[in-house]
Amino acid sequence: MVTSRLLVERGSSRDPSQDWGEFHFLGLPSPADRIAVEYEGHVQYLTVLSVHHRPVPSGTTTEAPAGDVVAKWTGAEP
Predict the structure, then answer these.
(1) Which of 11, 20, 47, 55 has the most beta carbons within 10 angstroms of its beta carbon?
(2) pLDDT tens-digit map of 16-38
């Protein structure tokens, strides 16, 4: 399982990304993957645009690898 911050693009490309917080993934998604996330009490549908990896050197015990999943909001269940 991988924990990653989810950054969501909604509206215009000039609008800032929304930080939806950290989510657990079975594995890091790939660009174009579709994901369904429960947020604000509804299931939200997203398409992954990119994954920003933040690796750490081998043998490091103070930090864990991390990543940001950047996705475009495509809809929600009512």
Answers:
(1) 20
(2) 999 999 999 998 899 999 999 99
